[in-house]
Amino acid sequence: MATVTELHLCPGRFNHQFISFRQNPRVFLPGFCYTGSKLFGKLSRLCVRHQCRSFRSEEDGDRGRNGEKSKEDEVEAESERSGILKSTRTVFVGVSQLGSKWKDDYSKSVAKLEEILSAAALQIGRYIITMMSTGVILAVGFQMSGGDSQLDTLIWYSWLGGVIIGTMIGSNMVLDEHCRAGPRNVVITGSTRGLGKALAREFILSGDRVIIASRSPESVDMTVKELEQNLMEVKQAASGSSKTSLAHAKVVGIPCDVCNPENVQNLANFAISELGSIDIWINNAGINKGFRPLLQFSDEDIQQIVSTNLVGSILCTREAMRVMKNQAKGGHVFNMDGAGSGGSSTPLTAVYGSTKCGLRQLQSSLLKECKRSKVGVHTASPGMVLTDLLLSGSTTKNKQMFNIICELPETVARSLVPRMRVVKGTGKAINYLTPPRILLALITAWLRRGRWFDNQGRALYAAEADRLRNWAENRTRFSFTDAMEMYTENTWVSVFSLSVVCAFIILSTTGTGSSFPGT
Description:
There is one protein chain. This protein is α/β, with parallel strands linked by helices. It contains 17 helices and 13 strands. The strands form four sheets. Strands 9-8-7-10-11-12-13 form a seven-stranded parallel sheet, sandwiched between helices. Strands 1-4 form a two-stranded antiparallel sheet. Strand 11 (331-336), helix 10 (350-369) and strand 12 form a beta-alpha-beta unit.
């Protein structure tokens, strides 16, 4: 309830002195409804306070009677006019902003719908391709069964079971990917060249925000400019939902020596100041110092390898966990596997292999320490990648083997990044060089001769700039490999089950001495 102490209405103006309010009163005026504090704010903009006649001095009254205008009256009149104009302008600006906001909301809704439909079409396409692939093996199974009704029934049940299992796992991945949609905040050490730079580029072109780090400030600046240029080129070529997903992508960098605890802490603080949080931290920094016996490694070589590969990864993992444990959604840390991670011998790279074996022990220990933590600790195994780390000190014989088993950094990053972005839980191993890929490489070894190097060990593959030009063009195209990559280890359960059935048919038929039609 409001109590009006005194209110005078003067010709052409409002004269009021005080309006006092009790706790949270509401005052109703024609077209207005305000609480006490809001009323004074609005009145201060819509009208000018004037001293009431009852409180004017005699001198002011004489001036009014004589028709004289004081300077105070002139200032008040001018303030009143400007106040009315300002209020009118505010009304029109408010209306225009409301219309602009409605248009923005409409555009965002259309973009969101387009993104959802595009994602649905992509997943349907992946499913159709998977079904077609299993259908091929199904037809081969029927051909090999020779018309046996029992074997045909077994093949049908195996195919159906594989499809159901694959569909369930694939659906879980789709739902998980949808729940985790949005830009990720990523930190990658050792990301100014080789696989690290390829990973950073792939994250950026997936719409994520990336911090790159390396020892050299010049390399960091150069890499940031290059990745920004890649992002700008892809944005210009993108359209629809693809362009929308790149709206938040960004890349910044900072020099960091991972062997230095203070540098690592500065890297984490820089990432928080730039991104607000860290979702994924990848410890990619590593050195090899070439292929040669241990006796030929200097003290400095050994110290650098162990400090960078093992000590640096431990320091970065600790700092990432310190940051992520205080985040509401936690985060994920990836350590890079390499030769020796599984405990196998690594002749000519004994120091490098021992550091990678140590990281695997670190992984096992952290899994038990962080069992109930929000921070996931994982490993990523890129296999053999054509980078300076691999090629340093390699012989011609090594390079001939690289033709069979190695891949370009862009190819490996394209496989690893989508799975890193949707990882959940802890203790996951994201591998590029899986047993099926190794088997395929060995089977097709005769076709892979001279793929990367000739007989003299000279490189045959294109320079990075030329590779990226072709890669950027092919990246926007839908391909069988891209469609199936997310389901490599899951929906192919149906294909595997049918392969087992076919092998069973072959073995059983061989045992009975019968032969297949057409053999």
